[in-house]
Fold:
Amino acid sequence: MTQGLSNHSHAMHQHPSITLEPHGGIHGTLHYALGSERYTVPYEHTGDYRLGLLVFIEELNAQLKCDAPKSRRSQILRDLQTWSIQSGQKLTW
Structure:
């Protein structure tokens, strides 16, 4: 990864690691990692492949312990949208 970038721009240049961990049935955990940040968010299959997975993004709010949680949350959502498009795995929240 690129080093020496300002804190403001580092998330734009690095790609997060996003993985899905199914727990059997309709439940699972989405894992998001970027640098030293690690977040886990539960998801459920919606039963509708057009909608994809329902990600309980409100669970992320309690995990954001940074100076600008709303800004960080917005960036994570953008990362998830990009990942969804690139992977073909539809997400909704």
In short: Residues 43 and 55 are 4 Å apart (CA to CA). Residues 69-87 form the longest helix (19 residues). Confidence is low (pLDDT under 50) at residues 1-11. The chain is about 30% helix and 30% strand.
